[in-house]
Amino acid sequence: MAETQDFALRCTNLHRYLGQGEGRVHVLKGVSFEARRGQVYAIVGPSGCGKSTLLYLLGLLDQPDEGGIAINGQLMSNSDDAARTAARGAHIGFVFQFHFLMLEFTALENVMMPMRKLAKLTPEAMADRAHSLLDSVGLGDKTHRLGTQLSGGEQQRVAVARALANEPTIILADEPTGNLDVKNSSMVFDLLTRLAKDHGQAVVLVTHNPDIANRCDSVLPMRDGVFI
Amino acid sequence: MSPNLRIAFRFLTAKKRAMLMSLSCTVLGVGLFIVTQATTSGFEDFFIKTILGTDGAMRIQDQIQDTLRSMNAGGGSDFLVSHREGVKYIEGVEEPKAVVNALKEFANVSGTSAVLRGNVLVRSSFKNESAQVFGINLDEHLKVSDLNHQIIQGDLATFREAPTGALVGKVLADRLQLGVGNSFLLDVQGQLLRFRVSAIYETGVADIDKARVYVHMNEARSLLKKPIGVTFIQVNLFDKNRAPQDASQMQEVLRHSASPWQEREKAWLSAFRALSVSSAITVSVFTLIAGLAMFNTLAMIVLEKTKDIAILRSMGYERRDITQIFLWQAGIVLAIGALVGALVGVVGTFAVSQIPLPINGIFKTETFQVSWNGWHYVEAVLTAAIMVMAASIIPARRAARLEPGDIVRGTAQ
Ligand SMILES: Nc1ncnc2c1ncn2[C@@H]1O[C@H](COP(=O)(O)OP(=O)(O)OP(=O)(O)O)[C@@H](O)[C@H]1O
Ligand SMILES: [Mg+2]
After folding, report:
1. The domain containing residue A166 runs over which residues?
2. What is the Å distance from ligand 2's center to A113 Cα?
């Protein structure tokens, strides 16, 4: 048991089918993988190989048709919605590949959103923390901009800051640097790596950028729904 | 502010126009509900006030025949014996003093007036009209009626001082062309007595104003040749609403039939009730439309906000939170609608109360009658709340059931 505690995230033999009837596709064909605390993992692979599908499963946003997912040693894949929701709020920070922000809210409000739900800090402490997170992704001067008033790359950085809001043990990021220039890519990546090292968080990111992938602790190449 | 309320508020401000339909229907529904209830119950209250002011809260009449005494009474007495629902009654109150004394034991009784009634022919110099003479003791009768407020010509002081004075209803006085100070004859089967008009009253109740002549009890006794006994005892109560309970108790104790105003005026009262219920139902159509509009708008917002729902769910917001966020939106619109609607109700009720509307016959009024009753506001808001919230539950639950995985893959429906 002591050994499993090192794994923030562990999944075994994950299968996932998508679509219905004729269009039913076997997207994930037996994926197993472990993420240790303090490590940064890169999942790479061609478009359509199932990277996002896997990340949704690991983030407990979707349920596998077969296989198990354990978060901090606890099997979550077959838990009920309430337990998975609670685990998402407390242990997982998720960055989506496409849509990032709630557009009617400011950057600051977006980052405070998970903290408000968890309700562990005072409102002042939440605002302080949100400010410093936005600072660390280079948006300290745009905290009061609405989502609609931010560029795609800025929105993506706010989304990264928001994923870190509740100090999750696991950060799952689907191409978090996809829309960013070299400078901002490095800034976001450095931030994620620093967190992994300093706070013992496990970071799993999907990337098409070989430079980023090479700077990770492990690279997991994926093809046709399996790691190769 | 709770996070869910905060989110609801922001979603809503982005959709102000779409919510306008539901909001305006809520305002109309609540406002009109209040105004219609205020007027229907205004007229009902006014009607009740009129009947309490004329025939009083309760009438004690017709002695209930004891089964033991029934043989004797049937033989010697010249009182009429009648059957009603298996119970035998002897018409009239034979010993009014004893009954009045017994009535005074009831804490709720605020006044009693013994009345002797008989059919008469009223002869004026102009023409004759058949009518009813009511023998009363003025001071007693003032405690059980609003007679003092119903005088339109002459005054009660004159009546009190004049042994052969009479109070004549306005319609009757007009027909006979009688004015204050004029004299007339009351004719009971050829027996004639002369009276003088002390005052003319108007209750607004046509049946009363065209038929009743009030005279002093002693004069009535000699006119009708009834030295003892009265026709009925009119009773006033502190708490008018307790009349039915008091009546059945009095009937037990006094062995006389006691009829409360609610029973006496049942037909009119149920007509008023039907009117207020039917107007409430009619006006609730607006609230129904408010509910449908709310359903529509929320369903639309749910569709537009699926991505936000996925983001919220990914951050740990529960299904319950999503439901709440959408119910809050309905709740905010409802609260604003109810508040503005209540204001519209207040202003509308006041405006309606200023509209001239002369009515005579079942009561007398010159303007619309309204009643200011907090319950109308509660009922109006409750109806709106039930409609609007019921309509929001379906879209709110639909939003909560969305699977975040389906949303992010774009397969949510
Ligand atoms: N609802 C669906 N029904 C059927 N197949 C689907 C459905 N959603 C996704 N797929 C398929 O599943 C596969 C994996 O999709 P996924 O989004 O995981 O790919 P990805 O590796 O993240 O690609 P990218 O790098 O372009 O983001 C794709 O081939 C896609 O066509
Ligand atoms: Mg993808």
Report:
1. 39-60+80-216
2. 24
